Amino acid sequence: MTLLLAQQNDLTTLDSAARLRRLQPRTGLDFSSNDYLGLARAQRLRNAVAAALARGVSIGSGGSRLLRGNDPEHEALEAEAAAFFGSEAALFFSSGYAANAALLSTLPQRGDLIVHDALIHASAHEGMRLARAESVATPHNDAGAVDQAIAEWRRRGGTGRAWIAVESLYSMDGDRAPLADLAAVAARHAAMLLIDEAHATGVFGPGGRGLAADLEGAENVITLRTCGKALGCEGALLCGPRTMRDFLVNRGRAFIFSTAPSPLMASAVRESLRILADEPDRRERLSALTAFAERTLAPCGVTPTGSQILPLIIGADAPTMRLAAALQAAGFDIRGIRPPTVPPGTARLRVSLTLNVSEAEIAALAETLSELRAREP
């Protein structure tokens, strides 16, 4: 069998299981993006980018950060981000995936243990796949299971450092991690706590500093803050101790051997942080919109989560994708999420709330969703 034939057979298998992915254009009302605060097209960001171009900021970096790619905009962003989030240092990556992969493949060492939540991001799994350390999954949002896993590892003779990897707000379920309990577990075992704040940064916490804001600055805490979601830009920031930053600069292959992110994007992220500080009404409006959506969509089977991510669990893959297609045809951009992104049997629609929609449009979605669900066999 030729390689192309084997690949085509795999694609056919995915298609028959209603799991074939296809690229789709942006159409309809935005109920699927992560542009939670509506910053991606904000005039203030456009003006900041134009001003950066006018003062000569480069579009491309021209090389890795360790060669000629290290731009003053990168350095300025990292200093400002560390100050904004309350960490000792920050390091800018081209994406959250790259940051997670670099973090988990570089910092934990042979003889260490990574204990991670079962629903953590795929990028964290990629980092753990490349890591020297052993890794183990624990049931979702179960701090007691994390504690038990580390204790059992010690009983089996584990002598290295434990690393606890979680998200603060889970991207497909919209629920929050028990961060206070996890911090207590980390303290009890002298463990490092790695918190992916991708979907909380900009939306929650004082000044939009995330759900882990109270833990930031601790010597055993590292946070990942993506810039392509609520910040409306691109890239990601790892925030934590300066030793973390220096070690990744020296040992993180995903950092060392990657072309540096665009200096122009670093300028844009700097402005996004200023917008978070200057425009708290964006978070307030999103919170009000979330409360309205929870009340309005709950009768349709959408799960209230207290966050801007509202799942509608369907279960099987095919009916999930049929419902998503029907909603898209009606003008609502909602995507179906299937395994392996979510556990088997939990295929769902992921309703993502942003400032790009209004209460009237949410009400229209609820009406259409109710009508479509009433027709289901």
Commentary on this structure:
With about 375 residues, this protein is an alpha/beta fold. The protein has 2 domains: about 25-40 and about 280-375, Aspartate Aminotransferase, domain 1 (Alpha-Beta Complex); about 55-280, Type I PLP-dependent aspartate aminotransferase-like (Major domain) (Aspartate Aminotransferase, domain 2, 3-Layer(aba) Sandwich). Helix content is about 40%, strand content about 15%. It is built from 13 helices and 12 strands. The chain has helices spanning about 5-15, 45-55, 70-85, 95-105, 120-130, 145-155, 180-190, 240-250, 255, 265-280, 280-295, 315-330, 360-375, and strands spanning about 30, 90-95, 115, 135-140, 160-165, 190-195, 220-225, 235-240, 310-315, 330-335, 335, 345-350. A 7-stranded mixed β-sheet has the order 2-8-7-6-5-3-4. Helix 3 (about 70-85) runs parallel beside helix 10 and helix 4 (about 95-105) packs parallel to helix 5 (about 120-130). The longest helix is centred in the last third of the chain and has 17 residues, at about 280-295. It is globular, with a radius of gyration of 21 Å. The two termini are about 40 Å apart.
Task: Show the helix and strand layout.
Layout lengths: L2 H14 L12 E2 L12 H12 L17 H14 L3 E5 L2 H11 L6 E5 L4 H9 L3 E5 L4 H13 L6 E6 L11 H10 L3 E5 L24 E6 L9 E5 L1 H10 L1 H4 L6 H16 L2 H17 L11 E7 L1 H13 L2 E2 L2 E2 L9 E6 L6 H16 L3
Parallel strand pairs: 1-10, 3-4, 3-5, 5-6, 6-7
Antiparallel strand pairs: 2-8, 7-8, 9-12, 11-12
Helix pairs in contact: 2-10, 3-10, 4-5, 6-7, 11-13
